């Protein structure tokens, strides 16, 4: 046991003290947040100046509804609002549309006795002189036909066109309802229909709060996936380290191979845990900060309503999932002589991982089926599948216990195999083991 | 510890890898407080034998006893092993590695810190204590590896080719340390194919060839059994005499001296007379024991 702790301590301290660890711990969140922030920044740059659109309203009654529709969209998306002062401009309105990022500045153009051709010629000139970015012509038949034209000098700007179209859509529908003498109350009721639709998607035939639970299962699965992707290779490297540096023989004259392997696995895993905790706390800090920000804007974010026991299951199955795959990396490491070889041999692991991850789809559809039972008992798919079952229709406790037992039992078994292969492999210098050979070594050692 | 106490005892030990038998029914005893030379050409089974003694690999049949007990993992703590295949953690500081290896032998605490300083002083590397091993030269690394084998004060020390690749000054330094350890009562198994070194420090030897023991005993007995059939000669003139196959089976010439192995049936007196008759001026004429190297070559070629 003391030797085991010595191995764990060495693995842990050597890695946590390494510059790579410190750099990656700081850099990853920075890179991640850059991925989040940079696209938003880029969109902001482009939407810095709203698109100036002149509106030629030949129907005579569409301009007001258009502005109203635009305003409404803006108020529905308060978080995305990029213009705090909706009253800026003369007779114009500004704001973002539902598609995000693109603001418009509308201005109405009255004919004032000019022929439509004259008005158009005038606007063409303004467009060329860049006084406006485009103009919208709503012909007298617009309400009936829905046909309108948008003239601009950048027809490839699909986003603006799309946004404009959806705003117009809203406006014209509104106006048609007014024309059909639908009273305001009824109109509101009809618009409420849009909100109803949103709820229906979220529910998808299940109780409302299981959506949050699914999100948590998904998050656990994702973190597991991330941890394995990042640390699987590290474990592989740690197992190979003594082969490459030829220390293995000295170690084996002092410590049992199994103790050594377990020490490495646990040591590296503690490093992973340290990194996850650092990131987790940073994330929690910003999340709390973000929740406060939202709360100050009158939005409430709540912690999902989940029984305490589920959190324990989340923890246990996360550990199970992580260790099951981590031990496979250790097994691969015991068979190969260099990290490059190991990298190739480790490829299928990712595949198994991804396939197991997607098992959550059939399992969530019928959590009580025989298929779901087996999937949640077999070690490779158990972590995600069992969690899905727990949050949907919690299976009997014995099934959960069995799944954990088989899972952690497999971890020990795989490590035992890995230790045997490692020991014999070390004695047969410089040779990568084929699978039948590895099997022979296991029996021979 | 009495001189007759047995530290290691192998009884008809056999180990095969697939079709290849690495060690064939080997029996040997290593007595406490002596330097035991495990000798033999490359591939003779020396390393496999050692690995079984330190319990890295188990024999297919036969038994191994250490300190009078059947081999087990606990006993590993009482052995210090410097394998031929050896390395250090490249990025780890010297002091950290030494501490780690000691911890793996269940030695820890303050004792180890002073031991580390003491040993670094002894191999003349105290200023490298806080350097990473990748910054050390190969010879320095080898001395650090040597410390890992002795730091926990083992009763049995197993050294597999400990001096290979070292310069003469460091070979001398380590050799002195090994002899010091012997004087303090440690048992040492010394494996090498460099006979000159073995000859200088071993009390007992066991010669392995092709997985089998071909010779065993104290160095003195072994040499005596080969008889005094060699002569060291320093003379001017009379060269042709040493090349006469009737008298001399083999001659090795050094700068100013020649060593002649007498042919079967020839005797030293005849050789001396012939040299005088040929008009040579003789500076030295001495009967010598055959070198371990000669014995080694004779035995190995005769066994083949």
Q: What can you tell me about this protein's structure?
A:
- The complex is a heterodimer of chains A (445) and B (304).
- Chain A has 445 residues and is mainly α.
- Chain A has 2 domains: 2-28 and 207-444, no CATH class; 50-203, 3-Layer(aba) Sandwich (D-Maltodextrin-Binding Protein, domain 2), CATH 3.40.190.
- Chain A has helices spanning 2-17, 19-46, 63-76, 116-128, 142-145, 158-179, 184-203, 210-244, 248-252, 257-296, 308-335, 339-358, 360-365, 370-375, 382-392, 397-427, 435-444, and strands spanning 51-57, 104-109, 134-138, 149-152.
- A 4-stranded mixed sheet of chain A has the order 2-1-3-4, with helices on one face.
- In chain A, helix 3 (63-76) links the parallel strand 1 (51-57) and strand 2.
- Residues 77-101 and 194-208 of chain A have low confidence and may be disordered.
- Chain B is an alpha/beta fold.
- Chain B has 2 domains: 6-224, P-loop containing nucleotide triphosphate hydrolases (Rossmann fold, 3-Layer(aba) Sandwich); 228-288, Alpha-Beta Plaits (2-Layer Sandwich).
- Chain B has helices spanning 46-53, 94-103, 110-122, 138-150, 168-183, 195-201, 219-225, 239-242, 268-277, 292-303, and strands at 6-17, 20-31, 35-39, 61-66, 69-70, 79-82, 156-160, 187-192, 204-209, 212-218, 230-236, 248-253, 258-262, 281-288.
- Chain B is globular and about 75 Å long.
- The model of chain B has no long low-confidence stretch (mean pLDDT 88).
- At the A-B interface, helix 1, helix 9 and helix 16 of A face strand 6 and helix 2 of B.
pLDDT < 50 runs, ≥5 residues of chain B: none
Estimated share of beta-strand residues of chain B: 25-35%
Strand order of the largest sheet of chain B: 6-7-8-3-9-10
Order of helices and strands of chain A: HHEHEHEHEHHHHHHHHHHHH
- How many discrete structural domains of chain A? 2
Q: What is the helix/strand order of chain B?
A: EEEHEEEHHHEHEHEEHEHEEHEH
Number of helices of chain B: 10
Distance between the termini of chain A: 22 Å
**Cα Rg of chain A:** 31 Å
Q: How many beta-strand elements of chain A?
A: 4
| Largest protein interface, residues of each chain | A-B, 26 and 32 residues
């Amino acid at each position: 046991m003391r030797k085991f702790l010595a191995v764990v301590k060495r693995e842990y301290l050597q890695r946590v003290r390494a510059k790579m660890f410190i750099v990656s711990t700081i850099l990853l969140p920075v890179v991640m947040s850059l991925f989040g922030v940079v696209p938003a920044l880029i969109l902001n740059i482009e939407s810095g100046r709203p698109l100036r659109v002149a509106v030629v309203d030949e129907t005579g009654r569409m301009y007001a509804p258009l502005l109203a529709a635009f305003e409404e969209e803006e108020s529905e998306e308060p978080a995305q609002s990029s213009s705090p002062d909706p009253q800026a401009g003369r007779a114009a309105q500004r704001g973002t549309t539902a598609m995000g990022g693109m603001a418009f500045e509308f201005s109405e153009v009255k004919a004032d006795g000019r022929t439509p051709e004259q008005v158009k010629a005038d606007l063409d000139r303004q467009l060329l002189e860049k006084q406006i970015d485009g103009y919208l012509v709503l012909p007298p038949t617009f309400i009936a036909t829905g046909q309108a034209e948008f003239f601009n000098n950048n027809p490839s700007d699909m986003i603006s066109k799309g946004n404009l179209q959806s705003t117009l859509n809203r406006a014209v529908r509104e106006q048609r309802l007014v024309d059909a003498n639908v009273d305001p109350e009824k109109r509101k009721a009809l618009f409420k229909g849009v909100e109803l639709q949103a709820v229906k998607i979220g529910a998808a035939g299940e109780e409302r709060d299981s959506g949050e639970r699914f999100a948590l299962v998904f998050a656990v699965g994702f973190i597991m996936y991330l941890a394995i992707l990042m640390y699987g290779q590290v474990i592989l490297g740690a197992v190979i380290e003594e082969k490459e540096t030829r220390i293995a023989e000295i170690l084996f004259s002092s410590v049992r191979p199994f103790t050594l392997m377990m020490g490495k696995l646990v040591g590296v895993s503690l490093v992973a845990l340290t990194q996850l905790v650092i990131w987790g706390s940073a994330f929690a800090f910003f999340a709390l900060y973000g929740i406060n920000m939202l709360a100050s804007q009158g939005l409430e974010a709540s912690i999902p309503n989940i029984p305490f026991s589920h959190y324990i299951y989340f923890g246990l199955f996360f550990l199970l999932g992580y260790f099951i795959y981590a031990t496979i990396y250790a097994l691969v490491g015991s068979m190969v002589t260099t990290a490059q070889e190991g990298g190739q041999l480790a490829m299928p692991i990712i595949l198994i991982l991804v396939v197991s991850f997607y098992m959550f789809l059939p399992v969530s559809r019928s959590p009580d089926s025989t298929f779901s039972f087996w999937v949640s008992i077999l070690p490779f798919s158990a972590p995600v599948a069992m969690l899905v079952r727990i949050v949907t229709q919690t299976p009997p406790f014995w099934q959960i216990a069995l799944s954990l037992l088989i899972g952690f039992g497999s971890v020990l078994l795989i490590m035992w195999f890995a230790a045997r292969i490692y020991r014999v492999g070390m004695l047969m210098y410089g040779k990568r083991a084929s699978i039948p050979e590895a099997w022979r070594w296991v029996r021979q050692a | 510890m009495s001189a007759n106490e047995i530290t290691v005892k192998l009884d008809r030990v056999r180990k095969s890898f697939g079709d290849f038998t690495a060690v064939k029914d080997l029996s040997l005893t290593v007595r406490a407080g002596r330097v035991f030379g495990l000798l033999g050409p490359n591939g003779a089974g020396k390393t496999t034998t050692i690995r079984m003694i330190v319990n890295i690999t188990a024999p297919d049949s036969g038994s191994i006893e250490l300190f009078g007990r059947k081999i087990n993992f606990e006993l590993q703590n009482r052995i210090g092993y410097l394998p031929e295949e050896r390395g250090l953690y490249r990025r780890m500081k010297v002091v950290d590695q030494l501490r780690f290896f000691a911890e793996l032998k269940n030695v820890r605490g303050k004792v180890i810190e002073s031991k580390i300083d003491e040993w670094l002083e002894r191999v003349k590397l105290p200023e490298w204590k806080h350097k990473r091993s990748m910054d050390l030269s190969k010879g320095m690394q080898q001395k650090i590896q040597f410390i890992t084998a002795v730091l926990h004060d083992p009763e049995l020390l197993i050294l597999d080719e400990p001096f290979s690749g070292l310069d003469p000054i460091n070979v001398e330094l380590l050799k002195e340390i090994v002899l010091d350890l012997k004087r303090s009562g440690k048992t040492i198994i010394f494996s090498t194919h460099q006979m000159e070194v073995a000859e200088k420090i071993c009390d007992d030897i066991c010669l392995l060839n092709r997985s089998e023991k071909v010779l065993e005993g104290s160095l003195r007995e072994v040499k005596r059994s080969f008889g005094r059939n060699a002569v060291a000669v320093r003379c001017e003139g009379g060269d042709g005499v040493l090349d006469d196959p009737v008298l001399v089976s083999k001659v090795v010439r050094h700068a100013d001296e020649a060593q002649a192995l007498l042919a079967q049936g020839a005797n030293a007196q005849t050789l001396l007379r012939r040299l005088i008759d040929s008009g040579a001026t003789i500076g030295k004429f001495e009967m010598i024991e055959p070198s371990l190297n000669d014995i080694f070559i004779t035995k190995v070629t005769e066994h083949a």
